[in-house]
Design a protein that fits this description.
The chain is α/β, with parallel strands linked by helices and 463 residues long. The chain folds into 2 domains: 304 residues, Zn peptidases (Aminopeptidase, 3-Layer(aba) Sandwich); 148 residues, Alpha-Beta Plaits (2-Layer Sandwich). It is 34% helix and 22% strand. The protein has 14 helices and 19 strands. Strands 1, 2, 3, 6, 7, 8, 9, 16, 17 and 18 form a 10-stranded mixed beta sheet that branches. Strands 12-14-10-15 form a 4-stranded antiparallel beta sheet, covered by helices on one side. A 3-stranded antiparallel beta sheet has the order 4-5-19. Helix 8 packs across helix 9. The longest helix has 19 residues. The protein starts with 22 loop residues before the first helix and ends with a helix. 47% of the residues are buried.
Length: 463
């Protein structure tokens, strides 16, 4: 979640004191610690082990074997996951699904100040890879169902939990995708609660904002390739693969996809325009009235997050060219990473890139192909309880709907007709708390406050 630019437009309020003092919090800590300290990085870890450990805790709490479904494929035995089901009392109500991923971004011990796969408490923080992304969410969801079972609470609505692997690496086997294609009945639900929302705190630990993710872009990579016969570098010719590729990459750089709005982004920008003073607020208002207003777009797009929220974006991320110092290049390639606006397609974006690259550069969409992002409805039945409980748990902190400029596994569930919402509640630091980077961390109090809020939120939806 990247929401740093919103801090200036929202009010702040102090956090309350105290965390990890109740017995139920201590029990949760054991689950969370075990999960963080289980290496689930693709290169050396095992999501399957993490899923089995959580499943064992759920069984000890009273879940039957029939309620727990472990899944993997023979080709990827360490990338398995778990689906758990807590049956509701009202068969007329469709289930809800809690979604989180167990895998984490790679973490090299030599680069970290602390061991990335040891949960270390220091200066009011928990440090470790996955402490935020996404093991905080996974632990809270599993802990919520364990508490329901221990308290003999029977929800009206069936509550399902899917813990998957493969979210952090595009070329990995993806458990969420596999479930939606191979076990759709197992995870079928009226709506999905996922990562992507949360909250922001400043350097002094004061809460700044809450956000619910309502929709996301689709991530897709494309390869641009220029090829030539090559030859001796002492006799250069106009047809040069590097120059041809460079021209294509510059054309991609210079193109701006058109401004578009979903219900979510329109609501977000409408709220933002009221709080941002001066020409930026006025430009947002003009752009809402006329998305083709280039002058307004230029002002709003000075902010990189706003720019990306308004449109599809494509950017060159990798280059490779040539084969020898003294030879004309025979081949030059570039990877272009696109974040495709909801409703726009992989194929449509490919066609635009081919147009920009020109006839001398081939453009292809890389596997795997992501589904088309579907605009998620800003449903009052979802928004209302979240906002009401936020006022109770985090008084005075405004909550806004946001569309993620990134991507989550939620897109696979949207593709089969299940709307996905990134829940608010987990407050992180302005720098993203080291997510995907070095020394990932979460404030101890933020974790336990989030746990309390999300427990109440699941209960509110479940009935």
């Amino acid at each position: 979640m990247k929401l740093g630019w919103m801090a200036a437009v929202l009010a702040v309020a102090p956090q309350l004191a105290g965390a990890q003092t109740r017995p139920d919090q201590q029990a949760f800590f054991g689950l969370y610690k075990e999960l963080v300290e289980t290496n689930t990085a693709l290169s050396s870890g095992s999501c399957t082990q993490a899923a089995q450990q959580i499943g064992a805790r759920m069984k000890a709490a009273g879940f039957a074997d029939a309620d727990l479904t472990y899944f993997s494929v023979p080709e990827h035995p360490r990338e398995g996951g778990l689906v758990a089901v807590l049956k509701g009392s009202d068969a007329k109500l469709k289930p809800m699904l809690l979604l989180a991923h167990l895998d984490v971004v790679e973490a090299k011990r030599d680069d970290w100040v602390r061991d990335p796969f040891k949960l270390i408490e220091e200066d009011g923080y928990y440090y470790g890879r996955g402490t935020v992304d996404d093991k905080a969410q996974a632990a809270i969801w599993a802990d919520t169902l364990i508490r329901f079972k221990q308290q003999r609470y029977t929800p009206k609505r069936t509550v399902k939990l899917a813990l998957t692997c493969g979210e952090e690496t595009t070329f990995a086997w993806n458990g969420a995708e596999w479930l939606t294609k191979n076990k759709p009945d197992l995870i079928a639900a009226e709506f999905v609660l996922n990562e992507g929302g949360g909250g922001r705190i400043d350097a002094n630990g004061k809460r700044q904002l809450l956000a619910m993710q309502v929709g996301e872009k689709a991530a897709q990579n494309y390869t641009l390739v220029a090829t030539n016969p090559g030859g001796h570098s002492s006799q250069p010719v106009p047809e040069n693969a590097i120059y041809q590729l460079a021209d294509a990459v510059k054309a991609v750089q210079g193109y701006q996809f058109p401004v578009k709005f979903t219900d979510t982004t329109r609501a977000f920008f409408t709220a933002t325009a009221k709080t941002v003073p001066g020409e930026v607020g006025a430009a947002i208002t003009r752009l809402l009235a006329d998305p083709t207003d280039k002058a307004a777009d230029a002002i709003v797009s000075r902010d990189k997050a706003m720019h990306s929220t308004l449109r599809t974006t494509c950017v060159a991320t990798l280059l490779n060219a040539g084969h020898a110092e003294n030879a004309l290049p025979q081949r030059a390639t570039a990877n272009v990473n696109c974040r495709i606006f909801p409703g726009e397609t992989v194929e449509g974006t490919l066609a635009k890139l081919q147009e920009l690259a020109g006839p001398k550069v081939a453009v292809t969409a890389n596997q795997p192909l992501r589904p088309t992002a579907v605009p998620t409805p800003l449903d009052p039945k979802i928004w209302g309880p979240a906002e009401k409980l936020a006022a109770k748990h985090f008084p005075g902190i405004p909550m806004m709907p946001v569309m993620s400029t990134g991507a989550t596994d939620g897109i696979y569930f949207q593709a089969i007709g299940m709307p996905v919402y990134g829940v608010p509640g987990t407050f992180i630091d302005q720098d993203g708390s080291g997510t995907h980077g070095l020394n990932e961390r979460i404030r101890v109090k933020s974790l336990y406050d989030s746990r309390d809020y999300l427990y109440d939120l699941v209960k509110a939806y479940a009935g």
